[in-house]
Amino acid sequence: MARPQPGSSRAFTLLRADIESCRACPRLVAWRELVAVEKRAAYRDETYWGRPVSGFGDVDAEIIVLGLAPAAHGANRTGRVFTGDRSGDWLFRAMHHAGLANQPTSTSIDDGLTLTNAWVTAAVRCAPPGNKPETSERDNCRPFLQRELGLLRHAKVVVCLGNFGYEAACAELGVRPRPKFGHLVETTSPSGLTLVCSFHPSQQNTFTGRLTEAMLDAVFARAVVIAAS
User: What is the pTM (predicted TM-score) of this model?
Assistant: First the structure.
């Protein structure tokens, strides 16, 4: 039986409410709300979320997946992290292959997706222009990541999607010096969490072949092994 999803824990519910009501970064607030009004033609009949996006998954997870930020027409539209865009297609397919997701797709917040032993989140909670958050925006979101990591008490592994997520994880977990980012690079935090790096499943990487399905599958296979040890 799948473990409970967010909502079963009051602490997670409070964290989600704080994230979703945040307006700390004027540039991000303006952008996420503009996108939600202008929309993409393919989604013109949909109501966009247009707010910060919280983490999602199994509250008892041993594996945390840490990405960059919501996509303008992905999570900023659907309201769930890595949902409704090509990056999410790659991510949840790989997680399904690894036995961490009950289905290989994530299209909407009510599509029936549940995660087992995994929690997916992002270093920045609002969609940034050009998919490039500023350092101050990342820092404004740090307290949310700190609280999230504190609540995920069973975590053993952090899968870092891209260098931005890797740097955020290292900063939060006290990894110093930080090994150079690279696909399948591993390091361990002072508290014993293992960080496993992956190229981000962005179209820039998947369309060019820099990241293949087999490469992403290998990352999650490794994470599962570490979590089981």
Answer: 0.95
